[in-house]
Amino acid sequence: MKIHSKSQNGVRPGAATNRRTFGLSAACLVMLLITAGCSPGGNSGAGGGPVDIHFSTGGALPPNEQEAAIFNGELEDKGVVKGNGEDYRLEMTFAKGTPEAQSLLVAGEVEFATLAFSTIASAQQQNAVPDGFSIVAGHFIDGYPGKFSNTYLVKEDSGIDSVKDLKGKNIGVNSVGTAVDVIFRNALIKAGLDPESDVRFVEIGFGAMGQALRDGRIDVGSMVQPFSEQEMQEGGVKVLTTAKESVGENSAIAVVARNDFLKENPEAAKSFLADWVSGIKWLDDPANRDEAMKIISDVSKTPVDVLDLFYGTEKDYYRNPDACPSATALQAGVDAMVKVGYLENTVDMKSLVDTSYLPDPDACT
């Protein structure tokens, strides 16, 4: 498998062995939004060998996006991932975020991509992908019963006890327009505050969010795992609210695929997603937890002791073992976008879901 790497807030994905190669030509990146040229490779199939599958991540690393851990080669060596090289040949690009992944999908540079509910909605409203696209698999769910929900932290001595106390305060988000931004704006509206005039949003990477909060540069820090648990372990902070309290059970991201590719290469798509599901089940199996954390650590460069704070526990996100996407959880984010003014009209996420390429579609009903 080839892996194309692009900067992720200064973090370069690791490689477990030297079989993995990196690099996407600068010329291809420059031309990306102009033409669908510079294709990483043509498709085979139809008796001509494995089908090329080009996949873009959404900008995050394992365990929040597990694809890099599933397909880095370790699970192939264990016989968990079986179709890569036989039914399909995978090339993975690490995008900076879901907007870049969306651009790759639209330009035809990739056939599969991890997109956020926001980029899914915008692509659908703009009819950006010829012949359309489908949501074919899920990643994780925020706020699933008994599991973690993204937190919005304040300092314990801040005097901030509710969202209503935030008028005039600085809110840290990783980027305006992202899931954590949309969801917190919805929380502000529910509390009777105007996100445009009553607070100020400050863009800060998740890795620097905790220190910015402790230094007083922001009054609220938006936290995903593992950063939320690290800050809670250090102490001096408290949870002001959660994503679940704002919009309910929600799903920030999902796996989408171009419909033209699915129609032309259904068996390759099914083999790829079968390996995805096998990988998820292996990585989330409690019997494999220690080894899984080692694989995830090698790929993400997150220390094992940090992963051990939450991975596979009630402090982790919920991942459906059959990779079933939740249209309801995705819809929560889209509806919040409409409420905060990021979308004029809603998009019916259920109409985009197609689980027929998963190994057990009946598990998703």
From TrEMBL:
It comes from the Bacteria. It holds the Pfam family NMT1_2. PANTHER family: ABC TRANSPORTER SUBSTRATE-BINDING PROTEIN (PTHR30024:SF48), ALIPHATIC SULFONATES-BINDING PROTEIN-RELATED (PTHR30024). This is ABC transporter substrate-binding protein.
